[in-house]
Give the backbone structure.
Amino acid sequence: MAGRQALSLRHASDRGSGTPRLIDRGDLLAALDRAAERKVTIISAPAGSGKTSLLRAWADRPGRAHRHAVVPVRRDQQDAQQFWLALLSAIRQTSGIAGRAEPPAATPDFNGRAMVDRVLSELADAGGDITLVIDDLHELKCPEALAQLTSLLTNLPRHAHAVLATRHDLRLGLHRLRLAGELAEIRAADLRFTDRETRELLDVAGIALSEASAALLHERTEGWAAGLRLAALSLAGHPDPERFVAEFSGSDRTVAEYLVAEMLERQPEDVQHVLLRTSLLDQVNGELADVLTGRTGSERILLELEEANAFVVSLDPERTRFRYHHLFADLLRLELRRTWPEEAPTLHRRAAGWFLRQGQVIEGIRHTQAAGDWPEAARLLADHAFSLTLDGQAQTLQALLRAFPPGADHPELALVHAMVDVVQGRLDETAAHLAVAETYARTAPTDRLPRLRVAIASLKLSLARRRGNLAGVREHAEFLSAPLTGQSDDEIALGSDLRAAALMNLGIVEAWSLGVPDGERHLQEGALLARKIGRPYLEVSCLAQLGFASKFRSFATVRSRCQEAVTLAERHGWGSEPMISPALVTLASNMIWTGEFDEGERWLRRAEQALQSDTGPGIGMLLHLVTGMLHAGRGHHHGALEEFSAAEQLQSRLGPHALASLVTGWRLATQARLAMADAARAALVGFPSEQAGSGEVRNARAVIGLAERDPGAALDALAGVLDHTAPVIGDVTIIEAHLLAALAHRALGDLRASNHSVERALALAEPDRLVLPFAMTGSGQLLETLPRHETAHAGLLIDILDVLHGSSPRAREAFSPAPMDELSPSELRVLRYLPTNLSRPEIASALSVSVNTVNTHVRNIYAKLQAGDRSSAVQRARELRLLSAGLPR
């Protein structure tokens, strides 16, 4: 294995002149060591990749047992005899017999076959390991010499090896060596500099660059050695290195000169014709290249260039799509502007037409803009804006808008501006642009009306939804029941798109509205239709909202739906898009309700990242609400009050909605817990009767009463919640009410009533294993003092106490227990009572089974847990996470 060695990079080429700058490329030298153990090694990479520098560093290391016969092939070598004489001379020089034998001389009747035999004979007689190093083999342009070289390589003596360096692959017929495992190959990808090596090169050259600029330089050069070295030479002494890197491209003088001399000018006219006319594309294929060049056969040229390592990279296994090296593409575009400046707009128009015919609208618009056809670009963008929005291309729309000249007057663009505004929550600007778009649509050509009308209808739906206007959404969704028959295929497709968008908007507004139960159904229908018509972004958007719309279902259902949405979003690369944020926030809420505070916080942070570009009041309010829940669950009441207050400020922009009473109730209750009961009570004055009578605000009144040491007033406030006459958003409000009642009864000295209320709260919390209400109400002491023999929910009780004492459910899940026989559901129910002080008859009574049944289950539990008694069974169950970890009590 090679030690760490230094490799020199020289100016302008693999060999240039000047003092070498040394950088450590020990990994690459070690790779060449391993490769050279084979009979033949080929190093194939473009010009300036560092092939010669690598060979020199590898051959010149001290202590190497191998001898190296190095033969650089002269440029455009056509004479086979000259090549072979140079090779024979190098072998003799290396083996030490050059002074004892006549130097090889040219003859008029050169016999290539005989020369191969002569070389093989001298290699066999050389004694010891010897390696032939043939550099710049691509310069050997004599087919006879290449055929003779194949014969030499396939018949090398056992102790002889060969390393060939070339800019492109040659037809040497070495397939048998490859099959036999005797051929090693080092390619351009192996020679590219890594980020670390780029940084080291800059350091050795004395160039100070920020990490970001060094990474940008590596990205622009794609690790190409000559490109990095040329950049380093230009950077030396530059007054503003950061700006130089930001502007560095293949049009830089030193890079351009190198690429023109070493690459472009070496290509025949027809190849240059293809390269220059396709340089304005990010990617190219044979068909598109034919369109731009006006000739056929472009794919063959692209394939040959790729095979020749000519800075052309294939992008798919079938080798049908290609791109140019970044710096080479910059140089080609410069040469196109210099050579045929008048052709660029025409080429862009041809490219735009081809992309539009292929359905690649974004590329079509970009090339239309590049051609300077601004009115046509505006028309295309307006016609396709709705479709692009449904595909999650809102950011692309913004970029395309910014590409128009400042002050450009294109009324079609008002529609696009409105779509960007509504996504970013700028609702007044949306309405203004929408009015301009409607005015323009009245005079638009007939063939464009269907697309414009669909886009305008979609915008009205989105605007009404963002403003929480259920009536407005329904008004604009009347077409939901209209048939789509008797129309063109394009109009039917647009109708399906609009129907799916309408279902989503309608479902979202209904999910937020009071007393409107259809939100789930419409979102499910929207997701199914989006899947059917091939709109995955719209499908994920519906599923993300469905998690929130399911908020009053079981927590398992909500969690499952949110995770489905997140999984699908991540599959498409949209895991950080704003549209997935409802699922992220709802999933965080779900975790926080069940006491998984750390995991809930992780999902909240993801939601915050996703919402950086979305300022909508609904999702913003929800984010503040759930963050406040997290603070309250951890006992951080000041942080909770700040978040609940922020949520309440945002909800004023929403109008009445399903969570309004919860936000207000929790804000008031948190104020009371922070000794601000007077402010909380004052805030109650003037509340509308409907809001004041909600279960959530009644609970807040109870907290105020308890803070004022008036437990009787607290119980009076809770009466409507506990007798189910007050409207509530769900069982969580009732659980909270029972716990507040328990605190009030305890303050009055009625421990029996207090314990009864706690038991009722535990019973309601048991199905979803809810923890948060107990944490928010400060019910830890209630649970600690609850006699274990009086509860049928001992397992949940212990879980809650664990969380209140700082145990993390997530940490317990990280434990990986040993395998065991699975307990049956009945045995698990009995197991939950074993940590309590209940006797077996008491357990039987609590479960409404016989004592014999309990005894049978206990014996099975002991056997499966490999425990000898009740205490060890409980300990083993906790290790296996079948019970809470528990605390000594």
In short: The first strand starts at residue 6 and ends at 9.
